[in-house]
Design brief:
By secondary structure, this protein is α+β, with helices and mostly antiparallel strands. It contains eleven helices and 18 strands. The chain is elongated.
């Protein structure tokens, strides 16, 4: 077994230790139901019987197959100056082209609608679960103040959680209420569409124990927290605005646990369609910028914004997660990332040609200033990326999950070098020479 690694806390800082669980209610407490109705409206637990037995069995086989195939991995997240591993191992499934961005990491969804696989393939099974939860969510929401909540789930973030003893990563104690070991610390889910519901289906190795719990607390601390034990194969819902008004945490049990968190993920900026359209718009400016006698600073600015987004939010995010991750996504995302890399490389060539014009002089002062700003910003982001790669958190990963540091590759044929300091020195000298 790999040596346990100490986990850094990524969610809100926990301000005080309250000691014991006097501020926590459980279902057997007299006040539990009244507090749940008054302060936790929107949290609903469905019994396993609401879904067909055949679907439960198919989902269990699918999840165990995905685990056996090595699809679950620890994410390396970055918050402030901290770079560290998640407690859990996870994989994202969803609609083709969907992603999920959190704590400076973009997860790429394995498409669950691959028509080249049979109905009982693991990813297709999880899509069937998603469809069942969409249908069930409509009934859960009907007649409540959350009836208009979005519930057309387009991704599911599937977690595999070990027990404290078996975990490769040292788990964290919950100190705000003294609730014990957590597999997921206090947080609200992110990258969700406004007023959308989250559905969480879960499955345990030892269902008779029923000792995995979800903890809930109000953000304004206006009510006692709740500790809710959950039965295997149950589903809980955080309806409508619940996620925006509460934090939740997962308290570790004594057997391993799968959870499938179905979400209405953001599509405005987190899909391949979005970033491809951004590239097409920027590429339309390239020819005019390169052929015009005078360099247009606004065109430089627009192309540079897309260049940075493609490089640091998409290409580097993909290769940051290693060769095994790239292989898992070979059927869809690897080709799409190569497509984005071609556009990014064309932007780099445009920058080089603009630099050639600036070197010859007779260009607007604004063009020199804009190009200095563009290259300085790229350099800063690349320096930050290199610093992130130096974190010991990556060294603790298996070789196949460590960042692919040579992707995208740089060689003598690259339009610009990775290290931009020499280019910036030349650009500043031209700016001084032409007194602009």
């Amino acid at each position: 077994m790999a040596k346990k690694r100490k986990q850094q806390h990524h969610e809100d800082d926990e301000p005080i230790v309250r000691g014991g669980t006097t501020d926590v209610l459980e279902p057997d407490d007299d006040a539990f139901d009244a507090v749940a109705r008054a302060s936790y409206d929107g949290f609903v637990v469905d019994a396993p019987s609401t879904l067909p037995e055949s679907l439960h069995q198919d989902v269990e086989r699918a999840l165990r197959s995905m685990l056996d195939r090595g699809e679950f991995t620890h994410d390396i997240l970055s918050a402030g100056n901290k770079v560290s591993s998640t407690f859990v191992r996870r994989v994202l499934l969803g609609k083709r082209g969907a992603t999920y961005h959190y704590q400076r990491l973009r997860l790429f969804a394995v498409p669950w609608e691959d028509e080249h696989t049979d109905r009982d393939s693991p990813h297709r099974v999880m899509r069937r679960l998603n469809e069942a939860l969409i249908e069930r969510s409509a009934k859960v929401l009907s007649g409540t103040r959350h009836a208009e909540s979005k519930h057309e789930y387009n991704v599911t973030l599937i977690n595999y959680m070990d027990t404290e003893r078996a975990s490769e990563v040292e788990l964290k104690e919950e100190t705000l209420y003294g609730l014990g070991t957590t597999s997921v610390s206090w947080h609200s889910d992110s990258s969700l569409q406004t007023n959308s519901t989250v559905a969480v289906y879960h499955l345990y190795d030892a269902p008779e124990r029923r000792d995995w719990c979800v903890a809930l607390r109000t953000l304004d601390d206006s009510a006692p927290a709740l500790r809710v034990p959950l039965q295997t194969r149950a589903t809980y819902y955080m309806c409508g605005d619940f996620n925006a008004m509460h934090h939740h945490a997962v308290l570790t049990g004594t057997s391993s646990r799968f959870s499938s968190t179905h979400r209405v993920g953001v599509v405005a900026k987190d899909t391949f369609k979005y970033i491809k359209n951004r590239c097409v718009e920027a590429l339309a400016l390239v020819n005019q910028l390169e052929t015009a006698d005078r360099v247009d600073s606004k065109s430089i600015q627009h192309i540079a914004e897309v260049h940075r987004e493609v490089e640091f939010q998409w290409i580097r995010m993909f290769y940051l997660q290693g060769e095994e991750h790239a292989e898992l996504h070979a059927g869809y995302w690897r080709g799409k990332i190569e497509e984005l890399t071609e556009a990014w490389d064309r932007f780099e060539l445009t920058f080089r040609r603009v630099l050639s014009k600036l070197k010859r002089g007779s260009q607007p002062p604004r063009a020199y200033a804009m190009m200095v700003y563009v290259l300085e910003t790229i350099k800063e982001l690349r320096d930050e990326y290199k610093k992130r790669l130096s974190s010991p958190a990556y060294g603790n990963l298996p070789e196949g999950l460590r960042p692919m540091t040579n992707s995208p590759p740089y060689d003598d044929t690259s339009p610009l070098p990775f290290e931009l300091s020499p280019v910036l020195r030349s650009l500043r000298s031209w700016k001084q020479k032409f007194n602009v």
